[in-house]
Amino acid sequence: MEFDAIIRSFYKKHWQIIASQIRSVNEIQCPKRGFLFDCGVTNKETLIDLLTKLKVNKLISKQIIVAAVKEDFFILNIEKFYQKDSHIFVDVSGSLEKPGNFKLNDFNIEKHLEVIRKQIISFENDLFVDLEISEEYCVPTIFGYLINYPVLYYYNDENDRNCLSLVDLKVFQIIRDDEILISFSIPCEIFDQNKEIQEKISFWLHHFQSHDEFEVKQFFTNNPIIILHERDEEARAFFEQACENDHRNLRAYQNLQNIKNKMARWHFKMLNDSSRNLSFKRAIQYWIKNGDGIIDVMDIGSGTGLLSMYATNVAKVKTKVKNIYAIEFSQIMADISAESLSTTEILMNDMFLEYLFLGNLRLISKRDEPYDADYVEKISDFKLVTKTVETIEVNFNNLESMEKYFNGKIIKECQLESEVNNDYIDGFVVWFSLYLNEMEPENIISTKPKSGSCWTQAIFKLKQRVLLQMYQIVKISVSCKEGVLKIDRDLDINSDLVDIEVDSNILKFLNDEEYLQELEFSVSKHKSKIINCLDFSVFPYVGLVLLKEGRIEKLWCRKKDELLVKEIASRNVIKESGFEFIDESMIDRLNIKFELIILHPFLSLGDLDNQMVCNFAKYRKLQADGGLLIPNKVTLFGELINSDWLISSCRITDADVKRLKIDKFINQFATEVHLDLDNSLECEKLTSAFKISEISLDDELHESSLEVPLRNTNLPIHAIFYHHKIQLTRATNDFVTNRKSKTSCFKRTAQVLNSELIIDGATVKISFTQNFGIVKCDVLTTC
């Protein structure tokens, strides 16, 4: 289309979003009257040139103009400002305990908006208007008015504070062609309690619901920052600026880390794998230098474009490479990739989208992925119990062979011979050897255990372990129909067992016998009568035990666990009348007191559940007099460490990759918070474990600092390695999450320093900040 082509000629990136937004502003039947240009860098001249070209080609109305609001630009439709629209106003000033709705004349809002409206319609013959915004105006209110949100927020604080933190919001989004045109919110409490407001919003939404091309989405959140930003690049810049403006804004800090984590961490590990890079470089150079005729090169899944750069460098010497194409699915990685690059690398540990389908085996653990990906050598008691066999061989240069595998015409029978006696098999580990050049057979990349490769191995778990005898043969059939690796086996599984699919985090929690015993012991010390128990741990194990033993009358637990809880209850002859299933969002509306409340303020990857930490005050209000709330206290501990493995997982260190300047782009996504760690982390500990701070179970700001003695000053500091101590009740000892247990449900996290820090002294100073239930530490200086 001509319209799209013109937009694309001005903006190479995000042109679809820009085109969709301008169309909506231009369409008279669409209530959207303005578009805030937040799709990257632009300027007044470029926007004016764009609108001029669209108008010359009669693709938009003459009423479309560019408006500047301080440093931001809007594209507005003047015609939509002739009529005064009705809005719902919500006061979110930071001085308030909670948001409240108000009338137009309460803060001279009507006067301010009318001044803005008159400025706009007075410029109907111009292409640009620089709106005069008085210092007393609330800029977010003006922004919402220009876009024409039905709900406008206002705050009167000089420091731009608001009271939306942790407030439950009802969010409305208007979507067309997979692009979000409008996204606005209103506090749930205000929406639920005001029928007039509900009717106003419903009427406003009807404009879109009456047209098939629009989709209206509604959902709830208590994070007002996230819902305002849908584009990663702009959101990252926004949150970086927010962190720079206020280092205590940990909500912005957390969102920044989340955005950076959208780029898979294995990119760093792969780019830092010098052996892998050298092998590909060698193969690429060989085939280009020894190829016949004119060569086109394609890099499928190009990532940062490293392999394409290798091909480009060869092309500078040998000019018979005509075109180099880089193909990448991820927008983030595509943005990082250089232009006109190429070769082929499509192998990862999910080669062929591996999937282990073990005959009639019914998996216990629900999985988003058919296997686990991990470095098996890091599993403390891992060992191979059979001989290794080659299961499948694919020639990627033979299309006929690949088609036969893909169509399921090739099924390979394999025999795995046991090398242990009276020992168990728990699953299968799969890896590959990649032969990059048949003319150089020694140029191989292997991902076998302990190879040092950046690739993890694929681990397919059995639902239950099977006893093997020495020399016992395990027969498997391997096929790859439609790109899905299927393995059938003849192992005897106890068919009398009934399998129930559950979340893997629940399995980890239920397998942590030591922690469950500590929970039961803590509750047993509480001698008061318990009528109602609220168990919001990973799974309400303790609550179920108490209900089965008749020590409580009613158990309240999460609605998401309802099916599993009812299944277990039926097998233990527990009446369903003893349960109530609720969501966390219902906590504020409960009119009941609990003699026992069990919480688990940790997420599965090791970090604090900041939402639960912030909501502790709400749970305390539900606590009956003399009731017990678990945990009573959580304390953060840390160790300063040196870890090359951790650094290579977080940012680029490889010299060859740096030479190509890829690090300049990809290190923008280097994260400071590394999750899902345990005691197997390869590191050198530079300090003993030290107490950082007790976690305040609230949503307030807390700051402190401490001095830590170093026991090794010869190595640079890379990170702070965290763990916690949990005091379940005042009558019990601390439970340490940093245990050597193989079945611990607690993971560890690390705060990675932005750069290596070499300390010239015997001690180091560390600052601690907690805000919105999020914690952050910084290594400051020597003392």
From TrEMBL:
Pfam families in the record: DUF4504, PRMT_C
Write out the entry's keywords from A to Z: Methyltransferase, S-adenosyl-L-methionine, Transferase
**Matching Gene3D superfamilies, A to Z?**
Hnrnp arginine n-methyltransferase1, Vaccinia Virus protein VP39
Can you give the residue ranges of the Protein arginine N-methyltransferase domain?
A: 376-493
Q: What highest taxon heads this organism's lineage?
A: Eukaryota
Task: Name one process (GO BP) from the record.
Answer: methylation
Q: Which GO terms describe its cellular component?
A: nucleus
Molecular function as annotated in GO? histone methyltransferase activity; protein-arginine N-methyltransferase activity
Q: What is this protein called?
A: CLUMA_CG014100, isoform A
